[in-house]
């Protein structure tokens, strides 16, 4: 057997399709040169020829023909008489090329070569995977859910590489089923037990940034830039954008006609509220915009301590703070300032803390909120001030629905 078909002999060769051919040929060549060194002590006078297309391997031994009795180096030279036994026409001074049969190395040596080749190809595949995903960090990919566990989800990409979406990188409202395709951003590549682990994320600001880039051509083309994104996954996000073209309204371009561009992103993020604001270097204006949807009366700034005291009318305070303090927390992250909220006209009797009904949109259906607003209830306390009987008489809501609404609102105040 002068040549060996690698595709039949080494199953790992079939799995190495994503490894470039020159690299694979070099690995195969190195493995068999090691085999030669173990048997002959050197591989200097041997050529290992790999045909990557056919999967063939040939090993050629080169020796110079010398006069009988003048052989100084048996690896590099062969006597005339021995050479003519191989081919009668040889003459002294010619070079003898002899094909070697791999079976002559013995079963154990061939098995060791196979194991070494499998190990080397495995390492190559790991390196290819690490490089592929290291170059794609921050990019969105689509993968299929293969297994759902308590602490993480296992996904497969188009080449059946395993990807991990940890619970900490999932939006709280995420629910996945085996076989469905989901989108996530490549967060990082870790090494665990010498194997690459690709970590995905749906909570990273980069995920929202890439979704915006897909939906808003002006961002993709570089006409609008995203200056900063802060998120409370599944609840609220704030995006500061800036336009390099005076003719383009960056906020309008990101939101789209009647919210057409932002709606798809909101659905992807499980109804996460997204506030898109126009970035400015005027910190006072930036703080004002970052506290949207509330309207600020005035503020006191301390630029050295990066602190802002913001004063609002009583009905705007709950909007500025937001449910569970999310709105003001994100405003602080976006601006880099510590923001304290105060009610305007402190001399007046202080009103109780209240929360706008819109902040409960993830738990209370929009049509119910609209029905409550129709009877003049636009905050949580205004609803709780009415008795269940009065609510039932004034609205089209059933008693069970009213009791459930009251429970949700009361629980929120108990948390606060």
- Based on the coordinates given, report the CATH architecture of the domain at 3-132: 2-Layer Sandwich
- What can be said about the biggest beta sheet? 5 strands, mixed
- What is the structural class? alpha+beta
| CA distance, first residue to last residue | 81 Å
Subunit structure: Monomer. Binds directly to the core enzyme of the DNA-dependent RNA polymerase and to nascent RNA.
GO molecular function: DNA-binding transcription factor activity; RNA binding
Keywords: Cytoplasm, RNA-binding, Transcription, Transcription antitermination, Transcription regulation, Transcription termination
Pfam families: KH_NusA_1st (PF13184), KH_NusA_2nd (PF26594), NusA_N (PF08529)
Q: What would your notes on this structure say?
A:
Among the domains are: 3-132, 2-Layer Sandwich (N Utilization Substance Protein A, Chain:P, domain 4), CATH 3.30.1480; 136-201, OB fold (Dihydrolipoamide Acetyltransferase, E2P) (Beta Barrel); 357-415. It has 15 helices and 16 strands. With 416 residues, the protein is an alpha+beta fold. Helix 5 runs antiparallel to helix 8, helix 9 (283-290) packs antiparallel against helix 11 (326-335) and helix 14 (388-394) packs across helix 15 (399-415). It has helices at residues 6-9, 21-40, 80-86, 107-134, 205-215, 217-220, 250-255, 260-268, 283-290, 314-321, 326-335, 366-374, 380-384, 388-394, 399-415, and strands at residues 3-5, 46-51, 56-66, 77-79, 95-99, 140-148, 152-156, 162-166, 181-192, 195-201, 224-232, 236-243, 273-278, 296-302, 307-312, 338-343. One of its GO terms (molecular function) is DNA-binding transcription factor activity. Residues 202-279 form the Transcription factor NusA first KH domain. One of its GO terms (cellular component) is cytosol. Participates in both transcription termination and antitermination.
């Amino acid at each position: 057997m002068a040549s060996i078909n690698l595709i039949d002999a080494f199953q790992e060769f079939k799995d190495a399709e994503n490894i470039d051919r020159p690299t694979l040929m070099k690995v195969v060549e190195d493995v068999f040169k090691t085999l030669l060194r173990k048997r002959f002590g050197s591989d200097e006078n041997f050529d290992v020829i790999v045909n990557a297309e056919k999967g063939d391997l040939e090993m050629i031994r080169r020796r110079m023909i010398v006069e009988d009795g003048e052989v100084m180096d048996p690896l590099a030279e062969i006597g005339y008489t021995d050479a003519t036994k191989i081919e009668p026409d040889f003459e002294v001074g010619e070079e003898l090329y002899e094909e070697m049969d791999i079976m002559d190395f013995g079963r154990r040596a061939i098995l060791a070569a196979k194991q070494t080749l499998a190990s080397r190809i495995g390492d190559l595949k790991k390196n290819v995977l690490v490089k592929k995903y290291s170059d794609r960090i921050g990019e969105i990919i689509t993968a299929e859910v293969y297994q759902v566990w308590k602490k993480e989800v296992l996904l497969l990409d188009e080449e059946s590489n395993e990807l991990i979406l940890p619970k900490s990188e999932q939006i709280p409202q995420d629910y996945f089923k085996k076989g469905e395709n989901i989108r996530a951003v490549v967060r990082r590549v870790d090494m665990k037990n010498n194997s690459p682990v690709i970590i995905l994320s749906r909570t990273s600001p980069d995920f929202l940034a890439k979704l915006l880039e897909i939906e808003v051509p002006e961002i993709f083309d570089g006409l609008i830039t995203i200056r900063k994104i802060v998120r409370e996954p599944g609840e609220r996000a704030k995006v500061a954008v800036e336009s390099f073209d005076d003719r383009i309204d960056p906020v309008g371009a990101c939101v789209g006609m009647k919210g057409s561009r932002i709606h798809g992103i909101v659905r992807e993020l499980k109804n996460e509220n997204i506030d898109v604001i126009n970035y400015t270097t005027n910190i006072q204006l930036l703080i004002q915009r970052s506290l949207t949807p509330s309207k600020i009366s005035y503020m006191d700034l301390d630029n050295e301590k990066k602190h802002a005291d913001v004063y609002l009318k009583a009905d705007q305070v709950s909007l500025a703070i937001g449910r569970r303090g999310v709105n003001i927390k994100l405003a602080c992250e976006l601006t880099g300032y510590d923001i304290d909220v105060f009610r305007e006209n402190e001399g007046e009797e202080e009103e109780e803390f209240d929360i706008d009904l819109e902040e409960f949109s993830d738990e209370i259906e929009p049509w119910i909120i609209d029905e409550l607003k129709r009877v003049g209830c636009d905050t949580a306390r205004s609803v709780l001030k009415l008795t269940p009987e009065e609510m039932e008489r004034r609205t089209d809501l059933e008693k069970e629905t009213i009791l459930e609404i009251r429970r949700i609102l009361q629980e929120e105040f108990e948390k606060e």
